[in-house]
Amino acid sequence: MRFAKSLIALTVTTALTACGGSGSSDNNVSNPPPGDDNTGGTSTTVYTEGVITGFGSVYVNGQRYRSENADIALANNPAATESDLKVGMVVSLAASSSDNGDPEATAIRYEEHLQGPISFIDTEAEVIEVLGQQVVYNDLTEFDEVELADLTVGDTIEVSGYINEDGEFYATRIELENDEDELKLKGDVSELDTTAQTFTINELTIDYSGAEFDDMSADELEDGLYVKVEGTEFDAETLTLIATDVENKDNDAEDFDDADEIKISGIVSNYDETAGTFEVNQYSFTVNGDTEFEDGSADRLTNGVRVKVEAEYDGEQLIAEEIEFIAKDARQVSEGQVTELDAEAQAFVLNGITFVVDDDTSYLDTSGQGARTFSYDDIAVNDWLKVIAVIDDNGDYVALKIKRTEEDDREGEIKGIASDVSLEGMTVAGVQVAFNEQTEFEDEDHLTPEEFVALFSAETDIEVEVEGEYDGDILVASEVEIEREDDDDEDDNDDGDDDNASDKRGKAEFEGAVESIDGESIVVNGFELRFTSDSELEIDDEEVSLEEFLAALEVGSIIEVEGIWRNQTYVEVKEAEL
After folding, report:
1. CA 183 remoteness from chain centre
2. Predicted local confidence at residue 354, as pLDDT
């Protein structure tokens, strides 16, 4: 049976020893021994993995950890400080906890999960491809040093997040790293070929013939081993990474089995309902009759859901004591000015909507105040906020992420149920939205304003996403897109015989490199593009004819495409820019 695969490896043992685990310690961490915190409280040891949601010390998995004495390391920087940590980073943390206050972190470790150049950006599916890996992002993903709209093919990014069962990365944080040429990836070894000296990670071939090995030798490689690979050469055509370093990240439970409490946040995989077992971040958990569930019932536990698990050891098994379901997708994005605060209820009013916060709310201050320790207690009436929220089973708007900004820095992007829809405008997320002659309306295809308004006479509770610019408090929409439920599962089960299912994939919007050109048929990232006489085409912001556009294309050219999926096999291009 495989046990935990810790991000911080040997450091956990060291940190837990400092907290009173097995062995002795002669380090500089100023923690009292277990059971003697100089105040009469009882001390326990804690190990946790999760995303940083705020500072003032460090908040991880909804818990504040004092960090003034913590040993902090980031990737190749073993002597980092708290100021190097960022909201959205998934970290490993060891701490000492007592019943007299917040736990005190003794060790905090961060390593990126993936780093490399972008080869494809699918803005409709919210997927970025790096080193052949699928990186899924959403409204909760924190983009650092770059806005999503400014990312382009060829940019190098660093990704922190979680891996789901399909090998996709769910990104909690994406940072632009164009000044680095190192390629990095973590994952399980598969298809090991000791003769060719290769193995694969999520279909990426790793050539380790010239690599150095850390915490292992080449002879210890085996399928299922969790490793970190670094290199500087990548062949996009063969999806091969030439490794310079391979590090063993597969650790036995003894690395942290001295911990009294274990808290892991991530995405469920390998769920076995019969056995009552599942994995999160390579950790194996067992559910029993005493397991408690929060924000959902036991039947909600399945592959792909995001959870926070609190567990303890029973012999050699990690028994899940509590499983909390964490919202991954926001149904409401609003921005505006705070008009009311209710400290007792931990709530505030923005655009006439009352939002509540909880332990998992993430905070970031990008305003002129630039407060690193920004939290609910720092929110004031008249503050400008962007709030990303989910509506819970009680109908409450729960803030998942709060960003304090300035009035002039509002992004003009909102999401929610549309109401009071007319040809002149509507209300979304409490924001008044106006339409003009330039406003574009999108469903699975382009809509006229009349077609858009007509939808609301036949349906209710239609969710839309709006982009535009503010004129005072009114958002003048440049684009309005109807958000439909994901039909991907149905598509996967389609046998291809039902022509009526041909347009289930709906709108296509992506950026990538041209792979092949055959007359007027262009292939980008495996997707065939077909042009019509109505296709609007540009080269460097200048309108051109189809003939001019095709003449300028070469294999390797980067193009941006908007279109419609037809017959689930090709994209009918509506707009394209070289």
Report:
1. 19
2. 97
